[in-house]
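Hello,

Our lab assistant flagged a job as stuck in the queue for most of the afternoon. It eventually completed. Since we weren't sure the result was trustworthy after the delay, we are filing this so someone can double-check. Below is the sequence as submitted and the structure that was eventually returned. Let us know if re-running is recommended.
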Amino acid sequence: MIASGIGVEVEHGSRTAIVGDNGQGKTTFLRTIVDSLPVLAGEVRWGHGCNIGIYAQHVYTSLPQNQTVMEFLENVAPGGTKTQEILNGAASLLFRGADVKKKISFLSGGERARLCLAGLMLSQYNILILDEPGNHLDVDTVDSLAEALLAYKGTVIFTSHDRHFMRRMATSIVEVRDGRVVNYLGNYDSYLYSVNKEVEDGERERATHMAKAPAELLKVKAETKSARKSERELRKEMNNTEKLIARLDEQKKLLNTQLMACSDAKEALRLHTEMEELSKQLTEAEERWVELQEELGDW
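-- returned structure --
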């Protein structure tokens, strides 16, 4: 079981970011609330009239290959939607001019991802569930996606590793961590402030406890500190970690370029899997770098 005792409410019209470290259960949480995974206890309850559209990380591999961009968008748009509205929806995700006449079979992985997102926003969904919508999109496309979602009138629940995107988009934060799910009202900066305050309060409480601790406990603390890595060792590890982060970042950029240019669905799926593994390694390296910074700060 990833988490228990969950009680989360998402208000209509909000843009809620699901955050948490890799492996904490963000995607599992999303899959559970859309009934892709069964709940082990309790229930997921949606309000009256909720119509949910889902963007999962592999969804663009199942697009109809024989349709053009325009044909696909015409099919997913509600009946009676004007051609100009469909063209505007396509343009919001950077399909302009001759791009709308392209066959899906000739689109790259990045273009297919954009098309899925454009289709979702043209449909009659009043709730969008988006799992890493910015993956495999370049900076300009992510900015266009943010603009389109900011103009969207419904509710958006999403995950993202892009902090700039979250800072721009989120009106509330749901954190999945250590077997619990907590709803933080306010934007991403408010969430960071709340988390930092929790950490500071915890450290203050531990400091108070240590001030009252018996001599034996203080002795253990002193021995533990003396047994830590030397400053020289820590700086060496930090240097190696920085090199690793730079190397992984370059590999990720290269993979992203290959994926955006790829028009073969199987190859796109393989590249996507490699990208996920690289993203996991990069996150772990960045977290270790932060830990090393904190350890060096104690010297």
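-- support follow-up --
The delay was a queue issue, not a problem with the job. The result is valid. The chain is about 55% helix and 10% strand. The first strand starts at residue 15 and ends at 19.
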